[in-house]
Amino acid sequence: MGLPLLDCFLNANGTALAQGAPLPLRFGAWMWGCGVNPARWTPSSEGTDFELPVELQALDRELATGGKLREQVSILSGFDVRLDGRPNFPHTAGLMGTLTGSLPLQDYTVPAPTLDTIIAAKIGGSTRFRSLEMSCTGNPNQSYSYESQSVFNAPEISPVALYTRVFGPEFADPNAGPFTPDPRVMLRQSVLSAVKADRDRLLQRVGEHDKQRLDQYFTSVRQLEQQLDILLDGPADLESCVRAAAPGPESLGTEVGQSMSTNQLMASLLSFALACDQTRVFSMMFSDRISGLRQPGSSAQHHQLTHDEALDPAIGYQPEATEFVYISMEAWADFVERLAAIPEGDGTLLDNCLVFGHSDVSLAKAHGITGIPMMIAGTARGALTPGLHVGGATSPTTRVGLTIQQVMGLNTESWGSRSMEATQPVSEILA
Are strands 132-135 and 347-348 parallel, antiparallel or unpaired? Predict the structure, then answer.
C-alpha cells in the first residue's frame, strides 16, 4: 500500500506540491463488452439522490477511506450514437462513435484516433510511459486504443509482464537514495540525438510517401527522447510512490474467474504506476466488444448468450447473459475501488483521476446504440462533481468525450463529425 504524500512535499493546504506544481492529473478508459439491460441498469431519477438499480448494485460498497463507492461515480445514460444513414456495424459503430466521435465506413475499422490517444498526446509526454494499455482477455491482439486505423497500442495481458515493464530494471524508486543516471540510457540518448540531427538532410533526398513515413518515425523518436530525459532526471518527490509487490501466480483467459483476477491484479499494479507518475494515461479492457467471457466449465460465451438465450417471460430478461453484466459491474467497482484506496495529498489517487467506463452497445441482443452505458469515476482534481446520474436526452455520446477532453486540459471546442459533432459539454458533472 502506498503512503500519503508527506507534508514537506505539499503546500499548506495539501492540494499541490510544495514547489507549486499541481498533483498529477490522470485519465483512463475502462471498457466492457455487450452492454447491459437498460431498464435494469439506468437509474429512474437524475441528480444525486437516486436509487441504484439492480445492475449497478456493485457500486453500493463501503470504501476503506469512508463513504460509498457510488459517491465517486457518475452514471451517464441516454446518450446515443447517431448513424446518419450509415450501417450499424454490430459492436463496432457504437464503440467507434463513442471513442472517436466518428462512424466507421466499414466494419472493424477505426475512423479517427481514440479518446485515450488524443489525451495521451496532450499529457503523456512528461512521464516514462506515454500510456499503458491492459486487457483481461488473454489476447494481445485485442485493443481499442488506436492512433489510426493501422496503428494500435497492443495491450499487456499478463500482470507479471506489466509488473516487469513498469517496475523492472529501469524503474527509479524515489525512496532508494541518491539517483544515479544509467550510462546505458545516456548512450541511447546520444545516439537518438545524432539521428535527429541528420533528419533535414535525409528528408531532402526521399519522395513524398517516404517523407510521411519518416515524419511518423521521427515523431516516435522525439517521444522516446522525452522518455529518456525523464529517466535521466530521476524520480519525482512523490511519497505515495512505492515499488509494487510482484504479482503472484496468474491464470490468463476468458473464464470469468481468470478475467476478474487479472482485472484486480492489473488495477493494483496500475495504481502504483500512477502514484509513481510512471504514466498519466491508461486504457483497460475487461472484455472485448464481442465479449468472450464464459462461466467455469462452459463453452457458451457472453456474446453468444445475448443472441441465443431466450428471454425469460417471467422476469423480462436473459438470466444467463445478465450474469455477465453483474460480473462486469463488479469488475468495474473493483478497479475504481483500488484507485480510491491509495492516499495522495489530502485525498486519494482517484481524486486526481478521471476514469471513463463504457461499453460498445446498450442492449446487446438488439445491437442497440441508443443509450450507450457510460460512467465517470473520480473528480479530476476537483474539476468534476461525482455521484450524479445525468440523462443525455438522446444527445450524442461525443458530448461526454468533449467534456473529458476539456477537463483534461485540451483546447477542444467541438468534437465529432456530422450529427455526432458535439459543442456542449455535460455541464451537470462540472464542478
Answer: unpaired
Question: Which pLDDT tens digit goes with each residue over 340-382?
Answer: 998 888 899 999 999 999 999 999 999 999 999 999 999 999 9
Amino acid in the structure at residue 99: L
Q: In a 10 Å sphere around its CB, with 0-12 CB exposed, 13-18 middle and 19+ buried, how is residue 179 labelled?
A: middle
How many domains, in total, are found in the chain? 2
Hey, what amino acid is at 260? M
Q: Does residue 268 belong to any structural domain of this protein? A: yes
For residue 170, what is the DSSP state?
A: T
Single-letter amino acid code for the residue at 118? I
* CA distance from start to end of the chain: 30
Are 213 and 294 within one domain?
Answer: no
Other beta carbons within 10 angstroms of residue 204's beta carbon come to: 8
Helix (H, G, I), strand (E, B) or coil at 35: strand
**What is the average pLDDT across 298-319?**
96
- Identify the DSSP state of 243: P
Give yes or no: residues 400 and 257 share one domain.
Answer: yes
Name the residue range of residue 191's domain. 180-233
State pLDDT tens for residues 369-428: 999 999 999 999 999 999 999 999 999 999 999 999 999 999 999 999 999 999 999 999
> Does 133 share its domain with 259?
yes
Total residue count of the chain as it appears in this document = 431
CA distance 156 to 418: 35
Instruction: Please choose, from the candidates 144, 158, 47, the residue with its C-alpha nearest in 3D space to the C-alpha of residue 104.
Output: 144
Half-sphere exposure of 373 (CA within 13 A, CB side): 27
